[in-house]
Description:
The protein has one domain (5-207): P-loop containing nucleotide triphosphate hydrolases (Rossmann fold, 3-Layer(aba) Sandwich). 56% of the residues lie in helices and 13% in strands. The chain has eight helices and five strands; from the N terminus they run βαβααβααβααβα. It has helices at residues 17-27, 41-51, 60-84, 95-105, 110-121, 136-145, 159-175, 189-207, and strands at 5-10, 31-35, 88-92, 128-133, 180-184. A five-stranded parallel sheet has the order 2-3-1-4-5, with helices on both faces. The two termini are 13 Å apart.
Amino acid sequence: MTRGIFITLEGPDGAGKTTIARMLAEKFENTLLTREPGGIEIAEQIRRVILAKENITMDPRTEALLYAAARRQHLVEKVQPALKQGKMVLCDRFVDSSLAYQGYARGLGVDEVFTINQFAIGDMMPELTIYFDLDPELGLSRISKNQGREVNRLDLESLDFHQKVHEGYQLLLERFPERIIKIDASGSPENVLQDAASAIEKHLNKEA
Length: 208
Ligand code: TMP
């Protein structure tokens, strides 16, 4: 029986990972592409609450707990069943987003946010995480040029916040060097796709 493979895609806003995720899902067979927060009805409902532009009074801990709640539901309802069927699950954002955004950028503490997430995910950590690295200023300018993209409550945060998110990811790279592979997201989609695909192929060959 083939075993499932859990891979997550991470990065600051505007890094282009959603576009590359779609291309990766076409390239690799037997793949389920999904995203957080969302991916299933209950989690999409939670996503709407978290990201609604009018919810400016949301407390950072509430925000962290809502992301963890959406994560739990998505994991049990969608990710785990697909892994059991032997699929490769490509998840656009997972726990590292909470560590970088809520733990580091919001200042709740990376360890504290990891602890509440352990309640949500147990030991379900991804075996590979591809981190799309991009200067936050460039990320924000890509967002403002992309007319079709939803602009959410977190996109509207200051450049300072997005710089902290970027710093948070650098800390995670140091903390999980075996799991997280950094790729440069500033190049053309073709180049970024090639780098992401080779990171996955390398991982698959290592496991074979
Ligand atoms: P998206 O634009 O990649 O769909 O993600 C929505 C926003 O939510 C994005 O700004 C990143 C943020 N986010 C967190 O702050 N914490 C999390 O745990 C996740 C999954 C996303």
